[in-house]
Specification:
Layout: H1 9-13, E1 17-20, E2 23-27, H2 40-53, E3 60-68, E4 76-86, E5 90-100, E6 106-117, E7 154-160, E8 177-182, H3 190-196, H4 203-208, E9 218-222, H5 227-231
Antiparallel strand pairs: 1-2, 2-4, 3-6, 3-9, 4-5, 5-6, 7-8
Amino acid sequence: MSKPPTPHPFDAALALSQDTPGHFTGHTSPAYWNMVGPFGGITAATIVRAIMDHPQRLGEPLSLTVNYAGALTEGPFELQVTPVRTNRSTQHWTVTLLQNDPAGLPVVATTATAVTAARRETWSLSDTPMPAVPAPETLERRVMFKGVEWLARYDMRPITGPVPHVWDGGGHSSLTQLWMRDEPARPLDFAALASMCDVFFPRVWLRRATQVPAGTVSITVYFHAGSAALAA
């Protein structure tokens, strides 16, 4: 009898149980650990996965705002996912992620709002074309910092604006361009795209070429592609 396939580390990290509609439980993953807690991108992805798994969901994600109220610690957590209003084409969500404190009392660690919608054919135009850049296979994969586990979960190939090699205060730009994908490779979906939006190191590190304490407090993602485009 063959063994079931081992899930991708990303899917294992997003594994959730839903006991009642809108109430999910999960557990932090060591595969996406940052310096003092989970990588913020995996938390955003978990919220997207919970919305996608909600039995009342309408359509696909259009926007997501995640506010990191406090650091998650290793262990279980719960998500309260609520469709606060459903219209003909759009649906608006609030999400609260809670984790027990040392006294066993639930404390809010993260809040989020999101919009999903039924995508319809409409007029569109891209104001900014994709930059002319080298193909990913011509670039070298770089590991920015050793010993930070979540970085091993991505194949990142910088074009411009990598983390400084010398922290001498001589930075001159905060622009980063890079190719990225999950490692090992995995089909792109909304949860994975949300997670990738937080892979960028603090802009102040690049602009100042100085390591200073920094962390994501709030992040907003707009999904300009539907599931068919992601699959392609």
